[in-house]
Amino acid sequence: MSTCIDVAKRAGVSRQTVSRVINNSPNVAEETRNRVLKAIEELSYRPNMLARSLKSAKSCSVGFVICDPLNPFYIKIANSLQNRLNEYNYRLVVLFANEDVREEGNFFNYMYEQQVDIVLFTPSEYSNQIERLIQRHQTPVIQLFRKIYPTINSIKVDDTYGTYLATKELLKSGHKDILLIEPALPFETGRLEGFRQALEEFGVPYRPWMFLTLPTNGQNEATLSAYFSEHKPTAAIPVSKSIEMQLLNMLGENATQIPNDVSVIFYDDNEVANLIKVTAIDHDIEYITALIVEKLFSNLEHPERSFHSVVKPKLLHRSSVLKL
Amino acid sequence: MSTCIDVAKRAGVSRQTVSRVINNSPNVAEETRNRVLKAIEELSYRPNMLARSLKSAKSCSVGFVICDPLNPFYIKIANSLQNRLNEYNYRLVVLFANEDVREEGNFFNYMYEQQVDIVLFTPSEYSNQIERLIQRHQTPVIQLFRKIYPTINSIKVDDTYGTYLATKELLKSGHKDILLIEPALPFETGRLEGFRQALEEFGVPYRPWMFLTLPTNGQNEATLSAYFSEHKPTAAIPVSKSIEMQLLNMLGENATQIPNDVSVIFYDDNEVANLIKVTAIDHDIEYITALIVEKLFSNLEHPERSFHSVVKPKLLHRSSVLKL
DNA sequence: CTGTTAGCGCCTTCAC
DNA sequence: GTGAAGGCGCTAACAG
Asked: Which end of chain B is more exposed for a tag (fewer CB within 10 A), N or C?
């Protein structure tokens, strides 16, 4: 790997001049600049970012810890975020935590070592170890989609409103026995709140069985099947890709038709929702990532200004039914 | 951010001793080591990896350029790879190229700047720009799942064999009019070869319409619908998540049942295949990533040894049919 | 406009 | 066992 000294020698200038050229400093004679550029080209020189970051104490990179890589929503966010950040010459470093706090902690340490300028993360659960870690370092941190740490800046989707929308849609169709199914995550999502709001608005009483939480890992088809037999809901709102798939599997095995027998609204639109034509709560990925980027840079400039942004989801209506 | 000097001062030693402690050098008195560890703890000191990598000229990081982030196969690979590499104290830097060669080139430059020790990538198409880029740098590169550059080390799945397996399965059920549908990518996958091999073995003549390629971006439901009307295949092997979904959408709109009207085998098992209970070609993620990690480290040690590994896929049999 | 000096945080080498 | 010197590749600050 050639260095700026190699380039300097070849172009017959000092390395400072090389530095000026690669940083587009205006104070370089056109002729000198061309000589340097030629040398750079010939040696296929690339500046060593480690050295540059070491010197400047900023790495122009953003860390992003994703709780669940198999949920395409987060991947779409990461992808769009990366595209946007690249335009600013910033890089996104993506890490998969798989809902494991210990892994999350390791990643934080890793990012501090790598001197990322700012950390985005979807916390998996509250951990005062991680909270202390964040407090002790002055690297800014933004929690995304889950507001678990009260003192840490956050950007999230209004899940209370999302569930409210979905529930209202089902109530409007005359359903009264609706089941909300969430993964059992160790924090409040606010979805139950929106669910109950909608019920109340329609004068439908809330009964405890209407809210079911399922273990995040493992197959819950049997549980679901028993639950449906017992409580006979006419509609369901499964939350998270994994639960959606398990619910469909179970309904399929029981030869139940959607929405003929059980109406379903997905919380998170995806290709399966599109395939079987079910209505879903939809998130505007591009709008969300634009907001994240905006907040991210303003946070770098003004670390003292705290924020807790909330984005409203939409209902994506689908009517027809697919029968396979 | 505290540095090794801060720790040294606090522990009353030289920074060299601090360095020895964080690198587990045996030549440190137990008492000194404890004093240093205490200072590290108190300052929540983390070594600056930029400085360390700059000095040692290795970053202990592996770059991974993913062609298609929305294909869960690649995400599963990335996730498993990251877990394995972390055990060796290596990091995986994931980049999403979205089948864009220009993006790919940018990422290569980025990785050279970041001094990653080795690059894994799923090339999107042949580009002599990228080939030259790779040749001019001495960072090892491994192409994954697509062997596009003949001279570059590769690890891939035997797609010829995979299609052979899938086709044979359909032929065994008596199908003679089988359609293989691939995304139109600018390189040979070898799938057609396996398809024809199987046909030949069963004495079924190959007809050109049996191989269809579709544009990678955009909806092809109309094309597919017209194609099915014209050629009336009784079975299909869609390749890639996107084509699978489009095919199902089309079949659903035409109220076709699988496998009653059209038998389908997915190339790549995923949750949708599981949901609608179709047979699929399955890849052993853990086996593949173990192989990648093994080859990766042996490549770092012996850059001169070239290799082209091939992993055999399996057929995952599913029998029942889901009717939604 | 260009070159020199000094230092970012760490580690290798060689003294003591 | 421990410390001092020097340098990895780059750039800010100051000379000229």
From this structure: N
